[in-house]
Amino acid sequence: MANGSARKSSLKPSSRKSFLLPSSVIIIVGIILALTYQSILKPPPPKLCGSPGNPPITAPRIKLRDGRHLAYKEHGLPREKANHKIVFIHGSDSCRHDAVFATLLSPVRSYKFLELSDPDPNRTPKSMVLDIEELADQLSLGSRFYVIGKSMGGQAAWGCLKYIPHRLAGVTLVAPVVNYYWRNLPLNVSTQGFKLQQKRDQWAVRVAHYAPWLIYWWNTQNWFPGSSVANRDGGILSQPDKDIILNMGSSRKPHLAEVRQQGIHESINRDMIVGFGNWEFDPIDLENPFLNKEGSVHLWQGDEDMLVPVTLQRYIAHKLPWLHYHEVPGSGHFFPFAKGVVDEIVKTALMQSIN
Ligand SMILES: *[C@@H]1O[C@H](CO)[C@@H](O)[C@H](O)[C@H]1NC(C)=O
């Protein structure tokens, strides 16, 4: 008995000590982490357009359900005269002026997340769809309209098929970004596509998915290469893309500064966080929204796209037999900028109603 109680009392202080030590360490480490987060990792707040000291508002905007403003640009015929109304959703690191899809065929509303729209820290594929529907209604685009989503704009285009199929006249996805974390992509297929990416982009995608709180620092530090898109490093692109960019010359220059005027986090990183995050749905689960052939869905993809692996697109096309898949040989991610391609894409999208 005496032995036992002696053993007990001799154990107590040391067990208390071993309890105290780690908790104080945890608190200190916690404080250091919090300070680090505040000073290094936390992105500065986005520069709200139109407020003092921030970029001016130079485009029409609509007011959305939660008070945010959404900027847009109209191209083509005045909307009262147009037979076909298309909402074009541009990709990452672009803006409303990049409406390469503005052809004479149809007016295009270029939908703008970045640049002049108010930031949406709670953005998801679904919230983008609600934004688009509100834009269409406030601009009186009618009960059904076309949607074209390019690259990161694919998030919203897939979302439209999921959430507002009854509002769609047709959908076209142009080199839409594939989320390696969609549930229905078999591991071997998504891994194969993932490995085709540069190491720096593999890491940036992992960080965007698993540690989005780290992505601001990741894409702005100079110790190692962050995302190639965030760093505007065209070195990874295929030759057809390099040729197209060379041909474009300085035509994008006047508005290039506007694209990131709210800061890299809202303009670029947010796309990655949403695009490679956990989606509320999986496009591979989608069902044909046009059972009566009153519209059609098209997906265009270059087979030399270094940003979006063609193998993943082929898998999706194979799983969604109602989707019309157009693979463009010898083309990279920027093939719509090649002469005549946009006309073909838009004509194909409208074919149903032209015939
Ligand atoms: C993935 O695995 C399936 C089933 O084992 C196989 O049929 C398919 O060819 C594989 N795909 C790739 C890209 O490895």
| Strand arrangement across the biggest beta sheet | 1-2-4-3-5-6-7-8
User: Helix coverage percent of residues?
Assistant: 40-55%
Cα(first) to Cα(last) distance is 98 Å
- Output mean pLDDT: 85
Q: Give the number of domains.
A: 2
Mass-distribution shape: globular
Unreliable runs, pLDDT <50, ≥5 residues? 1-15, 103-107
| Distinct small-molecule ligands in the complex | 2-acetamido-2-deoxy-beta-D-glucopyranose
Largest sheet: 8 strands, mixed
- Looking at CATH, the homologous superfamily of the largest domain is Alpha/Beta hydrolase fold, catalytic domain
CATH topology name of the largest domain: Rossmann fold
How many helices? The count is 11
Question: Which structural category do the helix and sheet elements fall into?
Answer: alpha/beta
Q: What is the CATH C level class of the largest domain, in words? A: Alpha Beta
Number of strands: 8
Q: What order do the SSEs take from the amino end to the carboxyl end, as H and E?
A: HEEEEHEHEHHHHHHEHEH
Which value, in Å, is the CA radius of gyration? 24 Å
- Residue fraction in strands: 5-15%
CATH architecture of the largest domain: 3-Layer(aba) Sandwich
Organism: Arabidopsis arenosa
InterPro entries: AB_hydrolase_1, AB_hydrolase_fold
Protein name: AB hydrolase-1 domain-containing protein
Keywords: Membrane, Transmembrane, Transmembrane helix
